[in-house]
Amino acid sequence: MSESIPHWLTKQADLAPGKMAIEHEDGLAISFRELKESSQHFAKKLAQLGITTGSRVGVLSANHSDMVIAVHALSYLGAVAVMLNTRLTDNELNYQIHDADVAFVLVQEHGPQLDASVYTFSEIKKLEEKDVFLQTELNLDDVFTIIYTSGTTGFPKGVMHTYGNHWWSAVSSMLNFGLDKDDKWLAVLPIFHVGGLSIFLRSVIYGIPAYLLEKFDANKVNEAILTKDITIASAVPVMLKKLTDALGSQTYPDKFRSVLLGGGPASRSLLEKARTHKIPVFQSFGMTETSSQIVTLSPDHALDKPGSSGKPLFPAQLKIDPSENGIGEILVKGPMVTKGYFNNKSATERTFVDGWLATGDLGYTDDDGFLYVVDRRKDLIISGGENIYPSEIETVLSRLNVIREAAVVGVKSDEWGQVPVAFVVKNGETTAEEIMEFMKNHLAKYKLPKEIHFIDKLPRNASNKIVRAKLLDLLAE
Amino acid sequence: MSESIPHWLTKQADLAPGKMAIEHEDGLAISFRELKESSQHFAKKLAQLGITTGSRVGVLSANHSDMVIAVHALSYLGAVAVMLNTRLTDNELNYQIHDADVAFVLVQEHGPQLDASVYTFSEIKKLEEKDVFLQTELNLDDVFTIIYTSGTTGFPKGVMHTYGNHWWSAVSSMLNFGLDKDDKWLAVLPIFHVGGLSIFLRSVIYGIPAYLLEKFDANKVNEAILTKDITIASAVPVMLKKLTDALGSQTYPDKFRSVLLGGGPASRSLLEKARTHKIPVFQSFGMTETSSQIVTLSPDHALDKPGSSGKPLFPAQLKIDPSENGIGEILVKGPMVTKGYFNNKSATERTFVDGWLATGDLGYTDDDGFLYVVDRRKDLIISGGENIYPSEIETVLSRLNVIREAAVVGVKSDEWGQVPVAFVVKNGETTAEEIMEFMKNHLAKYKLPKEIHFIDKLPRNASNKIVRAKLLDLLAE
C-alpha cells in the first residue's frame, strides 16, 4: 500500500524550527524554519511560470543553498527536479533536457545554450508569488528527482527517484551509522549527483545541519572538519587522498565519526593513511540507481576484510547471479532502488530481473556475506568519482568520418583513480588535435581522453568483441 | 506500492551475528545469530502442528525470551501472533480466541482453560522439525500481530499490526531519540502489550540488545539501569514513581538517555522528582492502534510545556476535529497506525475518517503545535498503565439479574494513577461480596472495581446519558 508522510521539510521546521539546516563556510546559516519558508516562497514564484505537479524542471548549479531551496520548492509543487551536471557540454545537457521533456531550467547564472526557458535563481526570486496549493504530504511512490547516468549504450538514461527511494536511503544510512542529534554532515560532493543531494535530504529527515561547501578544497574541508563540529562527511577516494595529504601531522577530532566513501574503490595504502589521521572510513558501493550507498563496509572490518565493499544495508539485499566459481553479476534489491528509467521502458526491463536491479558489476561474496567487487560494470571508468562509460566516448568518436573505429579504456591515475585513453583506427587523414577539438563540443571535460593512440586495428576476440585488456597491454609496452 | 524488506531478524543476524539481542538479569544472553537460529528451529516445530501462513496463533506468557522466540518463529511462518494478556480471566481470553479464530495457543505453562489447542514452549521444543519454507522477506503490508483493546462498546477489538506498522514505529522512534549503536533498551513492560513487544522489534531493527526483566521490581530495574549500561527504558507512570521512590539519593548514570513514558499522564511532581534523579523523561501519547508512541514530548520541553504530550513523530500527523474553542477529538495519521480491527469492518469504519484514526480522546494544540490531552477517550480509566473501559465492567455487571443498572468511574489513586469504582442500582437482594464474586470470573483482577456503592438511581442528563462527573461528586461527599 502506498504510504504518505508529512512533507519532510514542513515537518522538520515544525519539530525543530530554530535548528540549523544549512551552514556555510562564511558563517551564514539557515534554520529549518527559514529553509521551509524560503522554499515555499520560491515554489509560489515558480508556480507563476506555470510549473506545477508533474512538471520536469532542470536544476543546473554548483553547490549553493539557492539550489537546495529550488529542489525543495519543486517538492512543494509536486514537480520533478532533473538534476543536471554542470560539467557537461551544452550538447550533453540538451540531450537530457529533450529526453526528460524539460521546459524550464533553473541555473545559478546564465551561460549554457539550452533548449529550454532558463531562469537564474535571482530572476525567480524577483517574480510575484502565485497562490497555489503546496504539498502538505509526500506520497512515497511519487517521483521527486531524475538524475542521468550514462550506462552501457552510450546514451544517458534518466534514473527516477521517488520520495520513498530517498526516504529509505536516509533511513538505511541511519540504521547503519546510528544518528546523533548533534550530527553535522559535510557536503562537498556535487548536489547534482545523488551522493551530494542525499546529504540535504538526510539533513531534513534527521533534523541535522548540512555544512555546505561550494567546491572541494582540501584545506577548507580539513579546516571545517577540525573546527566546525562536523561529524560525518561524504567523499570520493581522490578527495580523501588530498585530505590526508593536506593534513600534515594533524588528526581528525574524536567527535568526527565517519567519512562515507563512495564513487569507486579505495586503495589499502589510502585506508591505512586515513587511519593514522584518525579518519574512520566507511567504504561503500552504490550507484545513482540505488539512491547512493546500498552496500557499506564499516571501519571495524576495513582491515580484516580488505578490498570488500561490505554488506547490504538493513532493508537491502544482494545476490550474485549467475555465479561461476562464485563470481557473477551483482544484483541488488531494496526500497531505495529506483523503479526505473524515465520514459525508457526497454532500458528498465533490461536492468531489472524479478525485482532485482542488475548492476552490471561483477563480484562475489565471502563466507561471511561480505561483497567484493571484481570488475566494474561494462568497463566503467571512474575518474575523480565521476562515472565515464567508454561506450559514450566511443559513440562520439564514431561520428567522425575520418575514424573507422575506436575503443576507450580506463588507465590508472594517481590523481584521479582512472582516466580515459582512446585507441583510434583512422579512416582518413586526421590528427589527435582535430579529434580532441571535436570531442570538446560533445563531451564534458572530465570525459575527454587524456591520450589518443592511433593503431592499425582493434584487438578482437573470436566473437569479434574488443579485448580491452590487450589495449592496456599495448599501453604498457 | 507494497514494499518488502529482508526478514529483519535474519538480516540483523547477518549484519551483527555475535552482538547480543536479549540480555537477562541472570547474566545469560542471546546473540542475534542464536535468536535467529532458535526462532527458525521453533518455526519448523510449529509447522509440525500445521501452523502456516495466515494462521492466527495465541501467545500467552509472562516476559520471557521463549516468548520472543515464539513471536519471531511465527513471523518466519507468515503466521499471525495474537498477543494475549496474562491478567485476563479465562472467559476474557476465550472471547479473544474465538474472535480471532485462534486454533493454537502457546503458553509458558499450562493452567488457563482455553478453547484452543494449548502447548507450552517446552512442549513445542520437543517436537520434530518440519522442512518448510521460512520467510526470507517481510512484506510490509502483511499482518504480523493482533492485540486486543477493549474500546467503548465493552467488546474487545483485535488491532491488526502489519510488519510495516512495527517497522515505521521503530523508525519513527529512532528519528526522535537518535540511535547509538551502544544503546540497550530495558524491557519490563509486558510483551503482550504493544509497548513491550515493540522493544524487541526495535532491538532487531536497530541491532541493539533488549534487557529483559520478567516482572517489575523497582530495585531490580534501578540496579539494572545503574550497573548494566542501559541507555533507554520504557515505563508507565506508576513504575516511574516507584523507581524514583526506591532510588534514595542515587541518580541515573550519564549514559542513560531516556525513559519513554507511556500509558497515561505523569504529574508535574513526578517529572520534577525524576529530574532530581537525572532521569530524562520522554512523555508520550499513543495506543495499541498506533503501535506504541505517536506523539512525544522531549525532556527539553518538560518544563516549558508542562502537561503536554508533545508533537507527532516525524512520519505522523495530528489534527483536532471538530474543534470547539480549539478543543476537539484528537485524530492521528501515519504509517505506524493500524489499518483496522480484525474481522470487524464496522468498528474499523467507525474509527477511521478519511485515513485518520479518531482516538476518542479530547485535546488541543497550542500555537507551537504541542498536543494537550484534555480528556481520555470515552471515560477511559488508566490504572497502572492498563486501559480499563467502564463499559466493559458495566456490561459484566448488567448480566446479573439482581442489578438494574450500573455505572463505573475512575477514581484517583496514588498508587495506580486511577482505579475503577462501581455504582450499582439494585433490582433485588444482593451484596457487594456476591457481585465481586461474580465479576472475578469475568474480569481481570486489575479491572475489578475497588469499591461498590449502592445508590437509588444513576444521575442522568436531559438526553438520558449518565453524568459520571456527578458520581465523582457523590464520592467526594
Automatic annotation (TrEMBL), chains A, B:
<dbReference type="InterPro" id="IPR000873">
    <property type="entry name" value="AMP-dep_synth/lig_dom"/>
</dbReference>
<dbReference type="Pfam" id="PF00501">
    <property type="entry name" value="AMP-binding"/>
</dbReference>
<feature type="domain" description="AMP-binding enzyme C-terminal">
    <location>
        <begin position="392"/>
        <end position="465"/>
    </location>
</feature>
<feature type="domain" description="AMP-dependent synthetase/ligase">
    <location>
        <begin position="10"/>
        <end position="342"/>
    </location>
</feature>
<dbReference type="Pfam" id="PF13193">
    <property type="entry name" value="AMP-binding_C"/>
</dbReference>
<keyword id="KW-0067">ATP-binding</keyword>
<dbReference type="InterPro" id="IPR050237">
    <property type="entry name" value="ATP-dep_AMP-bd_enzyme"/>
</dbReference>
<comment type="similarity">
    <text>Belongs to the ATP-dependent AMP-binding enzyme family. MenE subfamily.</text>
</comment>
<dbReference type="InterPro" id="IPR025110">
    <property type="entry name" value="AMP-bd_C"/>
</dbReference>
<comment type="pathway">
    <text>Quinol/quinone metabolism; menaquinone biosynthesis.</text>
</comment>
<keyword id="KW-0547">Nucleotide-binding</keyword>
<dbReference type="InterPro" id="IPR010192">
    <property type="entry name" value="MenE"/>
</dbReference>
<dbReference type="InterPro" id="IPR020845">
    <property type="entry name" value="AMP-binding_CS"/>
</dbReference>
<comment type="function">
    <text>Converts 2-succinylbenzoate (OSB) to 2-succinylbenzoyl-CoA (OSB-CoA).</text>
</comment>
<comment type="pathway">
    <text>Quinol/quinone metabolism; 1,4-dihydroxy-2-naphthoate biosynthesis; 1,4-dihydroxy-2-naphthoate from chorismate: step 5/7.</text>
</comment>
<keyword id="KW-0474">Menaquinone biosynthesis</keyword>
<keyword id="KW-0436">Ligase</keyword>
<dbReference type="InterPro" id="IPR045851">
    <property type="entry name" value="AMP-bd_C_sf"/>
</dbReference>
<protein>
    <recommendedName>
        <fullName>2-succinylbenzoate--CoA ligase</fullName>
        <ecNumber>6.2.1.26</ecNumber>
    </recommendedName>
</protein>
<dbReference type="GO" id="GO:0016874">
    <property type="term" value="F:ligase activity"/>
</dbReference>
<dbReference type="InterPro" id="IPR042099">
    <property type="entry name" value="ANL_N_sf"/>
</dbReference>
